[in-house]
Amino acid sequence: MSLSVEGVTKRFGAECAVENLSFTARSGEPFALLGSNGAGKTTTIRMILGLYPVDQGHIRWNGERLTRKRVKIGYLPEERGLYPKSTVIEQLTYFGVLRDMSARAAVTSAESLLERLQMIEHKGKRVEELSKGNQQKIQLAATLINDPDLIILDEPFSGLDPLNAEMLRDVVTHYAKKGRVILFSSHQMDSVENLCRDMVILRQGKTMVRGTIRDVKKAYGRTRLLVTAEEDVVTRLRVDGVVSIEQAANGIHLTLTDEAVALRVFKILADHNVFVSRFELQEPTLREIFIEKVGGGT
Ligand SMILES: Nc1ncnc2c1ncn2[C@@H]1O[C@H](COP(=O)(O)OP(=O)(O)OP(=O)(O)O)[C@@H](O)[C@H]1O
C-alpha cells in the first residue's frame, strides 16, 4: 500500500501554503513530514484527509484517487478532541461505532489497544480524571480503533514523557510491521530520527529536503569529530578546516569544513605522539540538518 502526494499545491489567497509538494509514503516505512510552524504540514494533512481541496496536483492511494470511502484513515489531530465526561471505554466504543464497527468489535479492539498502551486499568475512568499524557494515549487508541490502513499522526509526541514516547514508538513500529502506511508530522526532529525511513522538510510551503533520512545524512557528510586524548590537545587542533572546537565532558568536539580535514587532524595528533583513546567522525543529526535548512524553530 502507498500514499502518493504528487505535485500538490495549496494557496490561501495570495499565500502559497504548500507548493508543488511530492512524496510517497509506503507500507511498513513510517514517513516524516517535518517543518517549523507555518511550514504547511497541517495543510498537507488536511488535503490528504479531503478537508481542503487541492489547487494543483493529486493525492493517490495505490495509484488511484484517495477517498475516505475507499481507505480507512486514522487521524490523530494536533488539537486533541475527547469528551471529558465520558469513560474511556464508552468513548473508544463510540469512536469505533462512528467508523462503522459493531459495538462488540469496538469494545474488543478498545480493550486490546488499552492493554497495549498499558491503560487497561483506566478503562472505567472519565477522561477528565486522566493525566494529559494518558489522555493522549486514549486519543491514540481512538485513532487506531478500526485498524486503519493509513495512520496520520500530527505532532504525536507533544506532551508525552520519555516512557510514553517510547511506548508510542513501539506502537508505531507494531503498525508499520503490520504493513500500515504511517505519516508523522513533527517539528521534534529527535523523535522521528530512528522511527522513519523517508522524510520531507518543509519551509513556508517549499520542500527544502526530501529523501531517506540515511541518504540525506550521508549527503551532508560527516563534519563532526569527537576526539578524546590523554593530554590537552586543543591548541594543536586549531588548523585550517576546523571551524569550531568545543571541550565537553566526553572529549573535544570539532566541526570540520569537510570529512577530509579529519585525516589532517589525525596526522597532527600522530606526529605529536598524542595517545588518542577516541577518534570518531559523526553524522549530523536530523535536528542539525533541519536547523541548517530551516533556521531553527524546534
Ligand atoms: N484555513 C486557512 N486560511 C488561510 N491561511 C491558512 C489556513 N490554513 C493554513 N493557513 C496558512 O498556511 C500556512 C501553513 O500553515 P499550516 O498550519 O499548514 O502549517 P504547519 O506546518 O502545520 O504549522 P504548525 O506546526 O504551526 O501547525 C500558514 O502560513 C497558515 O497561516
Spell out the key features of this protein.
298 residues; alpha/beta; Rossmann fold; Alpha-Beta Plaits; 6-stranded mixed sheet; 4-stranded antiparallel sheet; 9 helices; globular; binds adenosine-5'-triphosphate
In brief:
The protein is α/β, with parallel strands linked by helices and 298 residues long. The protein contains 9 helices and 14 strands. A hairpin with a 2-residue loop joins strand 9 and strand 10.
Task: Describe the secondary structure blueprint for this structure.
Elements: E1 2-12, E2 15-26, E3 31-35, H1 41-48, E4 56-61, E5 64-65, E6 73-76, H2 88-98, H3 103-116, H4 132-144, E7 150-154, H5 162-177, E8 181-186, H6 189-193, E9 198-203, E10 206-212, H7 213-220, E11 224-229, E12 242-248, E13 251-256, H8 261-271, E14 276-282, H9 286-294
Parallel strand pairs: 3-8, 3-9, 6-7, 7-8
Antiparallel strand pairs: 1-2, 1-4, 4-5, 9-10, 11-13, 11-14, 12-13
Helix pairs in contact: 2-3, 2-4
The chain binds adenosine-5'-triphosphate (ATP).
Tell me what the structure shows:
One of its GO terms (molecular function) is ATP binding. This is ABC transporter domain-containing protein. Belongs to the ABC transporter superfamily. Pfam families: ABC_tran, DrrA1-3_C. Keywords: ATP-binding, Nucleotide-binding, Transport. The chain is an alpha/beta fold and about 300 residues long. The chain folds into two domains: about 1-215, Rossmann fold; about 220-280, Alpha-Beta Plaits (2-Layer Sandwich). About 30% of the residues lie in helices and about 30% in strands. Strands 6-7-8-3-9-10 form a six-stranded mixed β-sheet, sandwiched between helices. Strands 2-1-4-5 form a four-stranded antiparallel β-sheet, covered by helices on one side. A hairpin with a 2-residue loop joins strand 12 and strand 13 (about 250-255). The longest helix is centred in the middle third of the chain and has 16 residues, at about 160-175. The radius of gyration is 23 Å and the shape is globular. The mean pLDDT is about 90. Bound molecules: adenosine-5'-triphosphate. Adenosine-5'-triphosphate binds near residues 35 and 41. Adenosine-5'-triphosphate binds next to strand 2 and helix 1.
